[in-house]
Amino acid sequence: MKAWLVVSLLVVTIGWTVWSQARLQHHVLGFLVRRADGSARRGTVATHLLQGTAALLAVSALVAAVVVEMNFNAVWLRIPLAALVLIAYVPFAATLGRTKLRKIRRPVQERMQQLGAPSEVADAIARAGRPWSLFGTLVMLAAALVLSWHHMRT
Fold first, then answer.
1. Can you tell me the distance from the alpha carbon of 25 to that of 31, in angstroms, rounded to the nearest whole number?
2. What pLDDT is recorded for position 153?
3. Which residues neighbour 17 within 8 Å (Cβ) at sequence distance 6 or greater?
4. How many Cα atoms sit within 13 Å of 4 on the Cβ side?
5. Closest residue by Cα to residue 44 from 110, 96, 102, 99
6. What global pTM score does this model have?
7. Alpha carbon of 16 to those of 12, 24, 94, 97: distances in Å?
8. Would you state the pLDDT for residue 9?
9. How far is the C-alpha of 126 from the C-alpha of 112, rounded, in Å?
10. SS3 of residue 85 by DSSP
11. Coil, helix or strand for 98?
């Protein structure tokens, strides 16, 4: 088993996620603040709908990648689907996650308040987004495994 391949994919994905999250976060948070329109409930619903839809698409892509690989041995489709999940969904899911670099990076609530959200709306959106950030981490592990599936089997 070539575990070094999965570990290296995870390291590269984490680096990509940190780099692209900062660029993507402004757009995602701005969208959620505009959809909330001053209401914490609307912000929570918009967060769950947006993150849930993205999670459903990511998991569907991974399931399709595994099914195609197992039934048709189509590596040419498995690799792009898993890579797309790593490149697009994982940084998107991480936009509402907590950061441990408190001195370097601003918390999500502070960023939303700078975008014009009241503090209760910012807190509600951040609270609703934390489970999706954790789910994005699990999807990242699954996508790295699917991407290196062929090398793990041989």
1. 10
2. 58
3. 90, 91, 94, 140
4. 0
5. 96
6. 0.86
7. 6, 12, 11, 15
8. 80
9. 9
10. helix
11. coil
